[in-house]
Amino acid sequence: MVLKTSLRNTVIKPKRKGLRPFLMFITPTLLVIAFILIYPVFYVLLLSFTNRQLLFLGNVKFVGFQNYLTMFRDADFWHSLWLQLGFIVVALPVELIIGFFVALLFNREFPFSKLLRSLLMLPVFVIPVLSGLTWRLMLQPDYGVLAAFFQSLSIGPEAWLADKTFAYIAVILQDIWRMWPFMFMMIYAGLSSLPAEYIEAALIDGANFFQRVFYIIIPFLKPVLAIAFLLRLIDALRIFSEIYVMTYGGPSNATMLLSLYIHKQAFEFGNISYASAIGTFLMIISLAISYFIVKKGLRGETA
What is the pLDDT of residue 299? Predict the structure, then answer.
C-alpha cells in the first residue's frame, strides 16, 4: 500500500533537452530557404541600385534610384505593365467562372462523371512551352486547325498571331484553356466539403439555384476561391515561356508582358540593373495584391 502511494505521488518529469535538437533540424531548412528565396531577392534589390551591365561586369557604380526614375519615364514599361494587368483582369476571372460552374455541374454523380473529371484535368499537366507551341501551330494560317475553324466562321484575321489585337487575345485564350481546370480542381475540392444539410435546408425553404449559389455556396467557398485566385495570380504574374514561344512578345510588342520585357532588358539589351528595378517593382505589386486578397478573401475563415 505504501509502495502504491509512493508511486502515485511520484511525478515523472520529462527530461529537458533544450533547443539543440530543434536547431539541428530547423537550421538546414532555414539555410536552404535563405539561399533559394531570400538571397536572390536581396541580390536583385541591390542590383537595381547599380549600373551593372551584362557584358561589362567590372565597372559597377551605385546610382541610387536612377533605374527606378528611368522605369517610370519608360513608355514601353507602362505598355508592358498594362498588358500584364489586362491579362490578369481578363484571364483569371474567366477561368474562375468557368471552373466554378463546371465544378457545380460535376458536384453530382452521373454516368462517366469520374472519367470526365479526370479528363478535364489534362490541360493543367501540359507543359507551358508545349502549350504555347501547340497553340502557335493551331493558329498557323496555312494548316492550323483553329485558324481553319475561325476562318470558316469568319472570326478574326487570317493570321491571328500577326495581328496586334488578336495575338493578345490568342495569348489569353491559351492561358484560359490551360489553366481553368486548375480553378475547377480547387473549387470542386471545396464543394466536396460543403455539408449537404445547407443545400437541403435551402431547398425546403424554396431557394432557387441562384439564391443557393450566392447565399450559401459562394460564402462557404470564399477562402477556397481566394486561395485559388491567389495561386493563379502568382502564376500569371510570372507567365513567360508560353508567350515566348507563341509570339516572342510581338507583333510590335502587342504581347510584350512585363516578364518578357524584363527578360528583353536583361538578356537582349544587357541592362541587368534596369531589369532588376522592374523585377523589384513587379514583386512589390505582387505582394500588395496578394496581401489584399489574403486579407479580404480569408477573413471569413478566421472569423
Answer: 60
Q: What is the pLDDT of residue 278?
A: 94
Report the pLDDT value the prediction gives residue 11, as an integer from 0 to 100: 53
Rounded to the nearest 5 degrees, what angle is found at the Cα of 225, between the Cα atoms of 170 and 186? 75
User: Which residue from 49, 78, 47, 65 is spatially nearest to 272, judged by alpha carbons?
Assistant: 47
pTM of the model: 0.82
Q: Judge residue 163's burial from the number of C-beta atoms within 10 Å of its C-beta, 0-12 exposed, 13-18 middle, 19 or more buried.
A: middle
Which parts of the chain sit beneath pLDDT 50?
1-3, 302-303
Mention every residue, 6+ apart, whose C-beta is less than 8 A from residue 55. 270
Q: Is the peptide bond before 251 cis (omega within 30 degrees of 0)?
A: yes
Report the chain's terminal Cα–Cα distance, integer Å: 54
Q: Provide the mean pLDDT of the chain.
A: 86
Q: Which three cell numbers stand for residue 79?
A: 505598355
Count the neighbouring beta carbons within 10 Å of the beta carbon of residue 84. Answer: 21
- Predicted pLDDT at 197: 86
Burial class of 265 by CB neighbour count within 10 A (0 to 12, 13 to 18, 19+): buried
Neighbour-count burial of 270, counting CB atoms closer than 10 A to its CB (0-12 exposed, 13-18 middle, 19+ buried):
middle
Q: Is 112 left (phi over 0), alpha (psi -120 to 50) or beta?
A: left
Confirm if 85 and 292 have CB atoms less than 8 A apart: no
Q: What is the pLDDT of residue 185?
A: 92
